[in-house]
Amino acid sequence: MSEKWIWLPDWASDLTLWEDDLTEVDSSAHHVFVPYEKMVKSLDSLYKINGMSSSSTVVGWGMGAFALLMNAANRPEGQKWILLSPFADFCDDSGDWTEQNLTFMARQIRTTVEPALKSFEEQFNEEFGEWQDDWRRAASKMDPELLAEGITYLAQNKLSKPLENSDDIQVLYGRMDQAIPPAQTLKLKEFLPKASFRERPKAGHWPPMLLL
User: Fold this and answer.
1) DSSP H or E stretch at residue 60
2) Can you tell me the distance from the alpha carbon of 63 to that of 41, in angstroms, rounded to the nearest whole number?
3) Apex CA 55: angle with CA 1 and CA 65, to 5°?
């Protein structure tokens, strides 16, 4: 019987852009990629998403990893987590964002999507890989209201205490990550005392660089 993997995306992202590459991490497993818009509708109840509770491994990228951490109380026993570029607080002083400018962006994106997408895209310009164009095309097709809801979630939430069970959690982060600096991810060590942390020296924020 094959393993079941479920994948949670970052803000405004579509992980199926890299499906062929990402599934190579376990080619014998059954892989399910949760759409961004579906994830946002269930941010406070991720384990109600079909397949979440029965999956042997959950991979969360960026916002998806953060939402997973915020839903840790519902994690089934024995389920493995792989967190890509995760963080405890998107608005901490290691990053470029504050609650105030995210709140402004959330209001703006409801009427004009492009400026907000451009602001995020600018963080990827110096990274290896040329995936930002694909990312932007996919993001521009998403519901502006759900894009705004995701930004608001990042602005208003942060981890406040260590997870009771941080076994079987692997954290992968890129030394070249411009969106979530390594220092921001490393602050998670106090919240995940039993997790393993691994730096990818040549990787930025993109999942194929982090996983493979």
Assistant:
1) strand 57-61
2) 13
3) 145
CA distances from 6 to 22, 23, 73, 140 (A): 11, 11, 18, 24
The model's pTM? 0.95
Fold classification of 4-211 is Rossmann fold (3.40.50)
Structure tokens at 172: 């992968």
Residue that the structure tokens 């497993």 belong to: 29
As given in the structure block, the two tokens for residue 31 are: 């892989």
Please name which of 202, 190, 187 lies closest in space to residue 95, comparing C-alpha atoms: 187
CB 175 within 8 A of CB 201: yes
86: which 2 tokens? Answer: 């995760």
Which run of H or E residues covers position 22? Answer: helix 19-22
- Residue 189 tokens read as 């060590």
Burial-class residue 1 by CB neighbours within 10 Å (0-12, 13-18, 19+). exposed
Question: In the chain, which residues have pLDDT < 50?
Answer: none
Q: Residue 27 contacts by C-beta under 8 Å, 6 or more apart in sequence?
A: none
> Domain map of the chain by residue range?
4-211
**pLDDT tens digits, one per residue of 49-69:** 999 999 999 999 999 999 999
Q: Please state, in angstroms and rounded to a whole number, the distance separating the CA atoms of residues 6 and 32.
A: 5
